[in-house]
Design goal:
The protein is of the alpha/beta class. The protein has one domain: Rossmann fold, CATH 3.40.50.1360. It has helices at 9-26, 41-54, 80-87, 109-122, 159-169, 184-188, 203-211, 244-252; strands at 2-6, 31-34, 62-65, 67-69, 99-100, 128-131, 153-156, 178-181, 193-197, 229-234. β2, α2 (41-54) and β3 form a beta-alpha-beta unit. α1 (9-26) packs across α2 (41-54). The protein is globular. The two termini are 16 Å apart. The mean pLDDT is 97. It binds fructose -6-phosphate (F6R).
């Protein structure tokens, strides 16, 4: 794991945007794995700005979102479809037919999940997977005790996750109970994982994920087994890391060719 600590979420999101942009420039037909939530908003804002100001070209890019609520039509204001159009897709030049988000309205969930996995494979696999982390250590909506080799499937949200989503729905009761989410095995197949975490409330989950044992109780800890997982944190999210001093030292002494 590479752990990069930045002074604040603005700098962290700028760095993450440079990593994504580098991938898209080097590989115009790159496949991006995308997350929703509060964390990647600034990253997406940066990508929109790079597209507008420097012509960062997304016309050949394909994307796969991590998850979607079951039973929510794409046009619902709290769906991840709506989120993605509001925060990214409406501001860049991705081709609509190359945007993939799980269909929360499908009548055959297992078949839709198999098809999603197949679509990721047919696209050549995910080059860079953007991730946030839940306070309980989830990535995607792989809640604690998810199989470490799980594939895209239906999951039942924990109370904790439903509470965290309550703001977007007006109340916890209104939050759907189920989601379709890429699995931990699906995420692990990506060529690079880029996890962002900001704020003190993420500090415990980040420390367990990066420095604790690999365990299904902290699904993000599986990233320790990934050959190219980068964690980009602000100071608060990094505040419980035992080896923070070392991570800073590594960043400061990177050879030029390794810098982002
Ligand atoms: C969303 C997702 C979730 C979030 C996580 C953090 O697509 O997959 O794992 O990344 O719940 O959410 P925020 O960023 O809102 O704290």
């Amino acid at each position: 794991m590479e752990i990069i600590i930045q002074s604040d979420s603005r700098r962290a999101s700028e760095l993450a945007a440079r990593i994504v942009a580098q991938t898209v420039i080097e590989k115009p037909h790159a496949v991006l794995g995308l997350a929703t939530g509060n964390t990647p908003r600034q990253l997406y804002r940066n990508l929109v700005r790079m597209h507008r100001e420097s012509g960062l070209d997304f016309s050949g890019v394909t994307s796969f979102n991590l998850d979607e609520y079951v039973g929510l039509p794409p046009a619902h204001p709290s769906s991840f479809h709506s989120y993605m159009w509001a925060h990214l897709f409406s501001g860049i030049n991705m081709a609509k037919e190359r945007i993939n988000i799980p269909d929360g309205m499908t009548t055959d969930i297992p078949a839709a999940c198999r098809k999603y996995e197949q679509a990721v494979r047919s696209a050549g696999g995910v080059d860079i997977q953007i991730l946030g982390i839940g306070t309980n250590g989830h990535i995607g909506f792989n809640e604690p005790t998810s199989s470490l080799s799980s594939r895209t499937r239906i999951k039942t949200l924990t109370d904790e996750s439903r509470l965290e989503a309550a703001g977007a729905f007006g109340s916890e009761d209104a939050v759907p109970k189920h989601v379709i989410t890429m699995g931990l095995g699906t995420i692990m197949d990506s060529r690079m994982c880029l996890l962002l975490a900001f704020g003190r409330k993420k500090a415990a989950a980040v420390a367990l994920a990066a420095e604790g044992p690999v365990t299904a109780m902290v699904p993000a800890s599986i990233l320790q087994m990934h050959p190219r997982a980068i964690l980009v944190l602000d100071e608060d999210a990094a505040s419980s890391l035992k080896m923070a001093h070392y991570y800073r030292w590594v960043s400061e002494h990177k050879p030029d060719w390794q810098k982002y």
